Amino acid sequence: MRILVTGASGFIGRYLSSFAAAQGHEVVGTYVSAPELTSRIPTHGGIRWVPLDIRDGAAVRTLVDSVRPDAVFHLAAQAYARVAWDDPVGTFTTNVLGTIHLYEALRRFPPARGVLLAASASAYGTPPAVPITEEMPLRPINPYGVSKACQEMLSYQYFLNYGLRIVRARLFITTGAGKTGDVINDVAQRIVQLERATTPSPLRVGNLETRRDISDVRDVVRALWLLFESGDPSQAVNVGAGQSHSVRSIVDTLLRLARRPLEVTVDPELLRPTDEPELRGDVRRLRALGFVPQHPIEETIADSLNFWRQADSGR
Prior knowledge:
Elements: E1 2-6, H1 11-22, E2 26-31, E3 47-51, H2 57-67, E4 71-74, H3 81-86, H4 88-108, E5 114-120, H5 143-162, E6 166-171, E7 173-175, H6 183-196, E8 203-205, E9 211-216, H7 217-230, E10 237-239, E11 244-246, H8 247-257, E12 264-266, E13 278-279, H9 284-288, H10 297-312
Parallel strand pairs: 1-2, 1-4, 2-3, 4-5, 5-6, 6-10, 7-9, 8-12, 9-13
Antiparallel strand pairs: 9-11
Helix pairs in contact: 1-7, 2-4, 4-5, 6-8, 6-10, 8-10
């Protein structure tokens, strides 16, 4: 099967592309700029890398025309809520207009096996209750969440109106060794820096009270593949662990693994304008497909910390 992975150079994209290539599929992975290919996260040697700015509709059409994929995993996005606050226009251009460019190109050459969209639980905003079921309304509270809700609506429209099989995977937080811009890895990197520092400094953290549904990227890749094969395009599916962890508990676990005692201080610069108190998904639809996670959060936290220790030591 020939698979096109947009955003393959991103965190989930690297793991997903490598997983597909290891299964023997022909994988074409896109990236925006050459530095993205120098990530410390290793990738399978069988991936064919091609540059693509998804904001360029002509370039998207040319790529789809040349690849003629049997399957598409659409991961390309501006994926950080903090960046979306600073640049909502750029976020919408990438996430919404870029998705339109892709779907318009796929209308001309529909992939036989369909498309999987990496959607986001940020589209829920502050839910009326937890766990969050897929039937709950999408009421995002930040520009990133709004852009991801738009992606979903476009996906459903193209499924209904044009017959494109587009499965919507509504991801809760995905993390693992090598990610940047999330609490586990950001705090882990700061701990490694403090472990090597000659003078003691406090560990800077943000809001410790929020709770998040967090999954290991290795489990998420398996879930995405299962959804791509068996998912129903008429309904979104939550992809998560089905349980939430407080930032405080994550920081406490990292502190126990640290090689020196550390003090903690809340840094106002790390606080968001708004922050959902708890995001926890109802994952019964996913479990009904036979999915069972394999990597507990304690393992993910330890793997992430050790990744940055090795990266910072030059190994």
